[in-house]
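Worked example 3. Consider a protein that binds pyridoxal-5'-phosphate.
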Amino acid sequence: MPEDIRKNFSSDNVVRVCPEVMQALMEANNGSASAYGNDAHTDLLNTRFGDVFETEVAVFPIVTGTASNSLALSALVSPFGSVVCDQVAHIQNDEGGAPEFFMHGAKIVTIPSPNGIMQVDALQNIIHEKKAAGLLAPPIHALSLTQTNEWGIVYQPSHLAALSDAAHAEGLSVHLDGARLGNAIASLGCAPADTTWKAGIDVLTFGGTKNGAMAAEAVVFFLNERTRPYVQDFKRRIKRSGHLWSKHRYLSVQLLALLENDLWLHNATHANDMAQRLSIGLAQHPDITLPYPTESNEIFAALPETIIDTLEKAGFGFYRWTTPPHITGTIIRLVTSFDTRAEDVDAFLSHITI
Ligand SMILES: Cc1ncc(COP(=O)(O)O)c(C=O)c1O
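Given these inputs, the predicted complex is written out as structure tokens:
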């Protein structure tokens, strides 16, 4: 095996910054610029994102996905309200209580869904159930969906639109956690608008860090009657939470670099292609099963412990996942990125030959 093989498949967070983003950071590292988002790079964000999403937007760069989700939801949900999401959603399980903290104690209400894809009737049922409870239940003010979802599965735009319609009909706003939105769009082959505002999404957490940035996400409001009031004081929310970077230009240039020449979609397409290569290779092994379809850059595979042991001893990195009793073996999660190479995938697969 070549010495420099990249063995860490544990997350798309573990990889380096992509060269184009690093170059943009270097180029921006010149002279002085106004602080707190009043610089020339940040000024370009609304126009550039507006071009990509083909609509009017208000864009707020934030360093982490957790803060982006939490700040976005804090605008949509009153402290006495709640947000509904799938039971495996990142905001529910992986953000350390930040959404509840930022929402001033508002509740997260969860629903179980097949493969983490929320169903319209389940959404309607929970909304009606909470309404029927009157003052006993915090009213649901927002729906939060994740694209791609926690299993790397991609919502079809028509399904997102049906969920958004059901939510809007009951007065909810709709948030999309797009930590891996680029991977979803690359997988769907659709326009960014199709899986966002045209599918009823009001506010998006646009993911950059998993797709080549050093640290940059963006809260993107798709401007309409519902969202304009949220935008008004959003910068104050950012400031009050300590997330208003003074040297804002370094955040903004990362996002601009990702949008330039569709780099974000090229990076995501490459990551997805590498995931397909890995998934196809894994599926050929008689003792390996894939509990979820590989639709983006995350692969979940159930492997015998003996193979996991071999891979770990060979130095490959991945996470063991909770494995339901009906699955034989142990589920591991593998994630590919812009930086994964075909030879890295093949080196991994060479350790599980039959
Ligand atoms: C779906 C999803 N949303 C949000 C986040 C949060 O990102 P961060 O770690 O930057 O807070 C992650 C990170 O793993 C994620 O997978």
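Take a moment to read the result before moving on. The pocket of pyridoxal-5'-phosphate is lined by residues 64-66, 69, 90, 146, 177, 179, 209 (CB under 6 Å). The beta strands are 57-62, 82-86, 107-111, 140-146, 173-178, 203-207, 217-222, 298-303, 319-320, 330-335.
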